[in-house]
Amino acid sequence: MSIASINEQLLRAIGVGVALVRARDLTFVFHNQPFAEWFGTPGETAKLTEVIEALQDADLSDLDTNGLRFSSEVKIKRKRRTLVFAINISVTREAGDPLLVVECQNITRIRELESMIDSYSTMVERNTRALEREKERVERLLLNLMPRCVYEEFKTFGVVTPQLYPQVSVVMLDFVNFTDFAARTDPTVTLGELNDIFTAFDRIVEQFGCERIKTIGDAYLAVSGMPEANPDHATAVAHCATRFLRYLERRNLSHPHKWHARVGLACGAVVGSVVGVQKYVYDVFGPAVNLAARLQVHADPMTIVAPQSMEEALADEFRTDALGAEDLKGLGQVDMVQVVKPLGEPVTRPRFPR
């Protein structure tokens, strides 16, 4: 068997499509079985650009002259599937007329895998962005439930250690006749009004460096001095209380329903912690919270009541009037004062990050 015969058998046996084409007119000298299966069996006068129509616009003239190589990818529709081929064309001059060696490799599977990988990559990126958005949404939600430093501890360790804060001031506000109003008003209207008011209260609380802890129905609870210490915690909550009432007075001028509130202030030790296992709530406990709640009950509508023990802390910025002593449930006799108004413009407090 001659070397030429061996080479021809090898070309027929390999899995790559191979064809030999005359350089002068692009007619076929030889093609193997894979080439015929992919592009059809070329006739005696068929040209390369007729068999592979995707090469009609290709400039193959320089291949013979300059000995260059031509590489391209072509797509061919076979029934419902599109096949992709990598085609490389080079020149050989070993026997008579120059011949173009056309090598065709079926890379359809490779391109399908690349497309699948790109699709998966796009899907992963999309899901990652969705997870990031959900993470940010959950973070904003949790920061509305607890102070930022508490959230950071919870995120890092999964639990929050109860913390005692010895010097904290508490402001508790409750609306007058809210139960009657809620009973005779559409719930949507009631919730809309409360949302409007509590949003304004949140801005006031932030302005004076306080922390809104929670709302309980129509009650609003905020503190100063926790989780970050504040030496002016008493005056901070007093300024919040006076601004609450001032806001309600101005709002009542332009709204059909007139909101009136009672406010209680107190100072003392407070414990703060996250409560619950599945439904997390940051809450505060302690004598100061109980005292503020009891004092607001004894306040007249649109007034602020504080224990006499806060009078000295408020003296530089507020005028107070003595109200006498009352027997408060669980607390005994407590001397009370009414916080009337600030003596001057309040000092703006630092805004602690939530």
Explain this structure to me?
With 354 residues, this protein is an alpha+beta fold. It has 2 domains: 3-106, 2-Layer Sandwich (Beta-Lactamase), CATH 3.30.450; 146-342, Nucleotide cyclase, GGDEF domain (Alpha-Beta Plaits, 2-Layer Sandwich). The protein has 11 helices and 13 strands.
Labels describing this entry:
354 residues; alpha+beta; Beta-Lactamase; Alpha-Beta Plaits; 8-stranded mixed sheet; 5-stranded antiparallel sheet
Provide a concise account of the structure shown:
The protein is an alpha+beta fold and 354 residues long.
Q: What name does the CATH topology of the largest domain carry?
A: Alpha-Beta Plaits
CATH class of the largest domain: Alpha Beta
- Spans of at least 5 consecutive residues whose pLDDT stays below 50 are 347-354
Major sheet attributes? 8 strands, mixed
Count of discrete domains: 2
Average pLDDT level: 84
> What would the principal axes of the Cα set say about the shape?
rod-shaped
Annotated CATH homologous superfamily of the largest domain: Nucleotide cyclase, GGDEF domain
Structural class: alpha+beta
- Oligomeric status: single chain
Helix content: 25-40%
Q: What is the percentage of strand-forming residues? A: 25-35%
What are the secondary-structure elements, in order, as H or E? HEEHHHEEEHHEHHEEHEEHEHEE
Domain Guanylate cyclase: 169-296
Main location: membrane
Protein name: Adenylate/guanylate cyclase domain-containing protein
Subcellular location: Membrane
